[in-house]
TrEMBL record:
<dbReference type="GO" id="GO:0005783">
    <property type="term" value="C:endoplasmic reticulum"/>
</dbReference>
<keyword id="KW-0496">Mitochondrion</keyword>
<feature type="compositionally biased region" description="Basic and acidic residues">
    <location>
        <begin position="320"/>
        <end position="332"/>
    </location>
</feature>
<keyword id="KW-0472">Membrane</keyword>
<dbReference type="GO" id="GO:0016020">
    <property type="term" value="C:membrane"/>
</dbReference>
<feature type="region of interest" description="Disordered">
    <location>
        <begin position="320"/>
        <end position="343"/>
    </location>
</feature>
<dbReference type="InterPro" id="IPR052374">
    <property type="entry name" value="SERAC1"/>
</dbReference>
<dbReference type="GO" id="GO:0005739">
    <property type="term" value="C:mitochondrion"/>
</dbReference>
<keyword id="KW-0256">Endoplasmic reticulum</keyword>
<protein>
    <recommendedName>
        <fullName>AB hydrolase-1 domain-containing protein</fullName>
    </recommendedName>
</protein>
<dbReference type="InterPro" id="IPR029058">
    <property type="entry name" value="AB_hydrolase_fold"/>
</dbReference>
């Protein structure tokens, strides 16, 4: 496992793995502080392997899984994986609680796309996939919207932005509330008290009001540009550590969007933390990668089919907590019929 400083490119970007000639570039976006959990390294801890051993050293699966996945290696698919870093704290202190979605968008442009050390999305024939957990998924949609607006208004001065958008082929979400969070959840996340909150409560209020418009806009954008969209969502309730009953953070109705949806028998924190390469919450992403890379190599449009209407797609549901095998899942997803709901 590399030292955190060895993974760091700049204050906003860390790199999990960097092959010489990547087949695909993936950028991971973490969520925000939900309860009292430690979020000092949420850009890394979000993507740790789920282990039953409490004292096990952290393993970041985007750093280790891709290279040992037999499906990816058999197809000679090499993954460049990076993670975005931003302030996720919901409490405002002298050093935390400075989250500003518009500043993040600007930092993203300069730190990931235009940076000479990063340069994501600028390689011809190398698709880009953006992966977001929870709030990170909403951030992705806002970022793409802002990058697209800037490229459209100032195309001659921001040619890299258009290259990035041209190479953007996939959006993969882990429990992102595309249709807003329930009021009861927001109240649990930001209860009244003596501590000072950051701008997150106001931001969530704004995003909740804007969720429908943003979701519809992203659906149209993805359809127009042949961008594949997939979601994996939580099935289990989440303990927020506030001595109250566990609660469902993101409901199925709010989470489902795009081509396919995968029901994962985990809570909100662990929906994006696979145990191994056979876990459905990893396999869903790995198969997504293969599909995008193979279509790019074949020179076809990303989906080959129009994206389904909002609220339609393919479900792969875990039964009794048992994860679907990759071969079974793939067999079930062949052919046009797979774009309908399948339980």
């Amino acid at each position: 496992m590399e030292d955190d400083q060895e993974m760091k490119i700049n204050d906003n970007v860390y790199e999990f793995c960097k092959p010489d000639n990547p087949s695909v570039e993936i950028i991971f976006f973490h969520g925000i502080q939900m309860g009292e959990e430690d979020v000092t390294k949420l850009h890394l801890s979000t993507w740790t392997v789920k282990s039953e051993e409490a004292d096990a050293p952290p393993e970041y699966w985007p750093q280790t899984f891709f290279a040992k996945d037999e499906l990816l290696t058999s197809k000679n698919i090499s993954v460049r994986a990076l993670t975005a870093c931003y302030d996720p704290s919901k409490f405002k202190t002298d050093n935390t609680g400075r989250l500003d979605i518009y500043n993040i968008a600007e930092n993203f442009t300069h730190s990931i796309i235009d940076s000479n050390r990063v340069k994501v999305g600028l390689r011809t024939g190398v698709p880009v996939i953006m992966v977001g957990h929870s709030f990170g998924g909403l951030l992705i949609k806002k970022l793409v919207e802002q990058v697209a607006d800037k490229a459209r208004l100032n195309g001659n001065h921001h040619k890299n932005l258009q290259k990035f958008l041209d190479n953007l082929k996939g959006l993969f979400f882990y429990s992102t509330p595309h249709r807003a969070l329930k009021d009861a959840v927001v109240q649990r996340l930001f209860p009244p008290g003596n501590r000072t909150y950051s701008a997150l409560p106001q931001l969530f209020e704004q995003l909740n009001k804007d969720a429908g418009r943003l979701h519809e806009a992203m659906t149209r954008f993805a359809k127009r540009h042949k961008i594949m969209v997939t979601e994996a969502f939580e099935v289990n309730d989440t303990d927020l550590g506030d001595n109250l009953e566990p609660i469902k953070i993101v409901t199925e109705a709010s989470a489902v969007c795009g081509d396919r949806a995968f029901a994962i028998s985990e809570d909100h924190f662990n929906v994006c933390r696979p145990r191994d390469v056979k876990s459905l919450n990893y396999q869903a992403l790995a198969d997504f990668i293969v599909e995008i890379v193979e279509r790019e190599k074949a020179g076809t449009d990303a989906a080959g089919l129009d994206l389904p209407e909002v609220g339609r797609g393919r479900f792969v549901r875990e039964e009794n907590g048992n994860e679907c095998a990759r071969d079974t899942e793939r067999e079930a997803s062949n052919g046009p019929e797979s774009w309908e709901f399948a339980f």
